[in-house]
Specification:
This protein is α+β, with helices and mostly antiparallel strands. The chain has a domain of 121 residues: Nuclear Transport Factor 2, Chain: A (Roll). The protein has four helices and six strands; from the N terminus they run αααββαββββ. A six-stranded mixed β-sheet has the order 2-1-6-5-4-3, with helices on one face. The model has no long low-confidence stretch (mean pLDDT 85).
């Protein structure tokens, strides 16, 4: 029995190591193949086209067209607001912006990088009512492929406008309980 055990354990260990190593090499080769066949320029062009559709949607006050640029499981994170998740909530948020008079957005992409599974876009934005500036700032957007197109998966922005200072408040008086 001990003799059989001495042969069985090393054999199983060697077999396990070979299987584990071969899976790792195969996975690595698939990743390399996927990365080498990905064309970043095609991804960039798709994102720039989606940005143009978003700009046009704001000009036309069409929140449905604007949301068509977002993935089904998208999350929008705007300055001063809680995260907005899912298509219905993003439609409502974009409609609110449009109803407040935002009818012009400008997006300036500064850099796009990533791979076939996710792209990151860094840029600046301006939002206006006609030609009156309402906000300007910076953004980062993560894009993912969905139904053959690159869609906004996560978007975060923050304003570059100065914070309005709070009015001075008199100091609170603390009394000791006796």
């Amino acid at each position: 029995m001990i003799k059989r055990y001495k042969i069985f354990v090393p054999t199983m260990l060697a077999l396990f190591i070979m299987i584990f190593y071969s899976c790792t090499v195969q996975d690595k080769n698939e990743i390399i193949k996927s990365a080498s066949s990905f064309d970043i320029k095609q991804g960039e062009a798709s994102i720039l086209q989606a940005n143009q559709r978003l700009i046009k949607a704001f000009k036309e006050k069409d929140s449905i067209k604007a949301v068509s640029c977002f993935a089904q499981d998208a999350k929008l994170m705007l300055a001063g607001k809680p995260s907005i998740e899912g298509t219905p909530n993003i439609i409502t948020s974009i409609s609110d912006l449009m109803n407040k008079g935002i009818n012009k957005i400008e997006l300036k992409t500064e850099k796009i990088w990533g791979d076939s599974s996710i792209l990151a876009e860094e840029g600046t934005y301006k939002m206006s009512h006609d030609d009156v500036l309402a906000d300007k700032g910076k953004y980062i957007v993560l894009w993912k492929p969905e139904a053959g197109n690159w869609k906004i998966y996560r978007a975060i922005s923050n304003t570059s406008l100065p914070i309005v200072p709070l009015p001075k408040i008199s100091k609170a008086v603390h009394s000791k309980k006796e």
